[in-house]
Specification:
It contains eight helices and ten strands. By secondary structure, the protein is α+β, with helices and mostly antiparallel strands. It has two domains: 85 residues, Arc Repressor Mutant, subunit A (Orthogonal Bundle), CATH 1.10.10.10; 155 residues, Chorismate lyase (3-Layer(aba) Sandwich), CATH 3.40.1410. Bound molecules: 2-acetamido-2-deoxy-6-O-phosphono-alpha-D-glucopyranose.
Length: 250
Amino acid sequence: MQNALADEYRRLSRDTTTHQPLAYLRLRRAIRNVIQHRDIEPGQTLPSERDLSQALGLSRVTVRKAISGLVEEGLLTQRHGAGTFVAERIVKPMSRLTSFTEDLRARGLHPRSEFFERSVGEVTPEESMALNLSPGVLVARLHRVRYAEDEPLAIERSVVPASVLPDPHEVHDSLYEALEHHNCRPVRALQRLRAVLLGARQARLLHVTAGSAGLHIERRGFLDDGRVVEFTTSWYRGDIYDFVAELQTD
Ligand code: 16G
């Protein structure tokens, strides 16, 4: 792994198109790339700070700074006395508006969806409140299980105004890619998260036992002009996900 990382770091140092003059940012990108290419697997240890600084000819301060950024992003975890590992749980920073597909790709995982429903219909009273739509307006609905390779991670039900997404079959794996295609990817979101026990059907779909812990999340995504473009209800597996928020005093 150390060789793969050293090769990637040198490649980035030579690359004039994406040239990153700051060594710690270059190293951060090299580590991210080897995780994405699966040269290092979740749960495996990263070479020590000292080994990395020797192999790459960098100061330990630089190596530490590169690693600490990836720990904050949730890609790496540190255990006192045991070293730095590629995170096994998926750590999702709550301050960044990312999609399921992007979160998994960043970890070198292959995301995919299995749909139960892709339809267009009249907005329900609950959906019209969440999306600020008048009664009678049409919405596109997507109901799917989200997988990383063959492992189910979440169940999601998304509702999008049909004026934005007239045909829900345009969504293959990523809703945000389809919205981006229409220049309607949300730029801001409000998210409400609570702990739940997964019911029998949800548990079966997520390959866990009934009554396991889950996270129930509602996201309302907004466009620049304030229109609500997405109302998604998700049930994420509690045994895999950590949601992390950075807090600051006023
Ligand atoms: C995430 C979002 C969900 C969004 C989806 C888009 C959370 C809790 N939920 O799962 O609201 O619709 O990503 O992902 O983060 P996609 O572009 O891969 O379909």
